[in-house]
Amino acid sequence: MPELPEVETTKRGLEPLIVNQIIEQAVLYRANLRWEIPKHLPTTLANQMVNSIARRGKYLLIKFKVGTLIIHLGMSGSIKVVNNNTPLKKHDHFELSFTNGKSMRLNDPRRFGAVLFSADNTHSLLDSLGVEPLENLFDDTYLYNKSRKKQQNIKAFIMDSKIVVGVGNIYACESLFYAGIDPKRKAGSISKKRYAILTQRIKHILTQAIKAGGTTLQDFSSVDGQPGYFSQTLSVYGRENENCTQCNGKIMRFTQNQRSSFYCPSCQT
Fold first, then answer.
1. Exactly one of 55, 58, 80, 201 is catalytic; which is it?
2. Are 140 and 199 a contacting pair, CB within 8 Å?
3. Which of 44, 96, 134, 238 yields a CA-CA distance of 20 to 30 A from 246?
């Protein structure tokens, strides 16, 4: 699933290509994604100029004078900008065609993505989101205070989008490894000193992943079609039974919260 680094990579790739461009038409090729794409978009967005593009958690926010287009890439989505006359690909479900001869297309094979619209720039999906992990509000004090009396495991805790957004499964595994924290530990049992290390590791891992263009394991590619190269530097995720990069132990995998968790039993306590 595209997480914060992949969505941020997409946002940065789109920004110079679509901001200040005027929409010629919006086309719904298949409206029934995770939620139905609003049928009014072709009328609402016609002749509108893209004022800016932002990211909130895993949502892309394309802003117009008339409101905000909210896009989620789901499990397998990606966005490309191509020439208007480029043949459609299978699973191209939504398109913004611009007057400069370019088109922005959402491709989503599994159809878990979303294209929504808010006329007043608010939405219930955004209202419940926690802090952004790369902002100053996300620090050891914040995590420590939020974790008190929490019985859930630390991995589920840092992946909870109501606590902090965008720390997906890959980045949670990697951050806990570098913080030396066992993913099975209860969030409420971890000291503030260890949360200080964990917040630093989360920020570092996400920053490095953005620089590498995100992580491509199966479907994700950036606006220009390039894969994310952070997968080449993963230390634990996907490395079951391989040697730990920091000790002589073996990386282990187990199922946790219906997801695969990877960790080193020797390094993480």
1. 58
2. yes
3. 134
> E strand or H helix at 146, and its extent?
helix 140-147
Question: Which residue, chain included where needed, has tokens 């009328």?
Answer: 43
Instruction: Give the Cα separation of 204 and 31 in Å (integer).
Output: 38
Closest CA to 231 of 221, 246, 241, 244: 221
CA-to-CA distance for 166 and 77, rounded, in angstroms? 16
Is 36 designated active site? Answer: no
- Choose, from 3, 8, 24, 174, the residue flagged as catalytic: 3
The yes-or-no answer on residue 80 being catalytic is no
Question: Residue 14, Cα to own-chain centre: how many angstroms?
Answer: 15
For residue 219, what are the CA distances in angstroms to 56, 235, 264? 22, 21, 27
Distance, in Å, from the CA atom of 90 to the CA atom of 93, rounded to the nearest integer, reads 9
Assessment of whether the complete model's pTM goes beyond 0.85: yes
Catalytic residue among 39, 184, 193, 259: 259
5 annotated active-site: no
Q: Kindly list the structural domains of the chain, giving each domain's residue range(s) and its CATH number in brackets, ordered by start.
A: 4-127 (3.20.190.10), 140-263 (1.10.8.50)
CA 155 to chain centre: 17
Q: What are phi and psi of 49, to 5 degrees?
A: -100, 140
| End-to-end C-alpha distance for the chain, whole angstroms | 28
What averages of pLDDT result for each successive group of 10 residues across the chain (269 residues)?
A: 84 94 97 94 98 96 97 91 95 97 95 94 90 96 96 97 93 96 98 97 92 58 50 82 93 94 96
Q: How far is the CA of 190 from the CAs of 139, 146, 178, 221, in angstroms?
A: 14, 12, 15, 36
Catalytic residue check, 150: no
Instruction: Please tell me what DSSP assigns to residue 67.
Output: E
Please give the Cα distance from 203 to 191 (Å, whole number). 19
